[in-house]
């Protein structure tokens, strides 16, 4: 295990700055996930930690040791990337043994380690096969096994599951979670997959244009996004954004007149400077119809465009005024086939964003916070 510290880390390619002043502390045994749009710098940052990409500025410390100029091979990291190249001419067993053979480990030690790793990843029955005789998920497990063999202090994963079908992804996600629990290593993981990020991470780092937009637990990022960008990035379907104008600020929050009609009182830190200013109200699709009897509610009239049944949950797509909106349908009591529908939400579940995209701090834990 190790802690990893990034202090003002920078990356430039030629004259273009790709990452600017990245400060981040990753604790011993923590599972940290980098997310962000394509091109935001996730892989570059991971490769810099891994020693595969030179660092242009700042300091990188692993276990309190400055490693900016230490070779990748000497950083004691296990890396698994999207295109996990196994040696095609070697069997699974030989692939697993390779890192330890290079480190001049003894035969008995290697054999013991292979047995342990193979059993952990449930690939015992595949040891004599060549990579081409394996399925994608099996190959993936061998690649992870090869990374484990050296007992690295830190694992780096760059979209390791992106080539797999849905079933295998789910299986592998569970295996990676178990692996982290058993080994207790520090893990740094890049993914585009919301579910992977929300379920695996202790801490999610949201990158945007080479900067850290927000760092927090999945719960924090979901319930207290610091910006409209994070709010829209975390959660599926995406948070709804409704335009409006602040009418008043008072001790219980701010009253916002929505372009779509109603005025709602959002329980956020009041700010007189915002009165009269345009703002955006954010409501997650899942927060509609979650309101409880007796609670103050807001109602929005939705013109229904279409309905999506996903089995356990149904989403209604439509518009409110001129704005597109998606809402989770209540379990019962909504008129199927109706062209109009009144949505209700609890004000405490609403988010408020200023014109510059920054969130206005919420006064209370949201109603849906459990
Ligand atoms: N060798 C390079 N030379 C110049 N620019 C590069 C180089 N490698 C990456 N970049 C640029 O750096 C930026 C960040 O790239 P990076 O691969 O880190 O993005 P990413 O967040 O991993 O994206 P994706 O989700 O698509 O994998 C991009 O704009 C990319 O074009
Ligand atoms: Mg990438």
Q: What report would you give on this structure?
A:
The protein has helices at residues 42-50, 92-102, 107-120, 136-149, 166-183, 194-200, 218-223, 228-233; strands at 4-13, 16-26, 31-35, 57-62, 65-66, 77-81, 154-158, 186-190, 203-208, 211-216, 240-250, 253-258, 263-266, 278-283, 298-309, 314-320, 323-328, 340-345, 351-353. A hairpin with a 4-residue loop joins strand 15 (298-309) and strand 16. It has a six-stranded mixed β-sheet, with helices on both faces. A five-stranded antiparallel β-sheet has the order 13-12-11-14-19. The protein contains eight helices and 19 strands. It is α+β, with helices and mostly antiparallel strands and 370 residues long. The model has no long low-confidence stretch (mean pLDDT 90). The two termini are 32 Å apart. The protein folds into two domains: 4-229, Rossmann fold (3-Layer(aba) Sandwich), CATH 3.40.50; 237-353, Nucleic acid-binding proteins (OB fold (Dihydrolipoamide Acetyltransferase, E2P), Beta Barrel), CATH 2.40.50.140. 23% of the residues lie in helices and 33% in strands. Bound molecules: adenosine-5'-triphosphate and magnesium ion (MG). Magnesium ion (MG) is lined by residues 42-43.
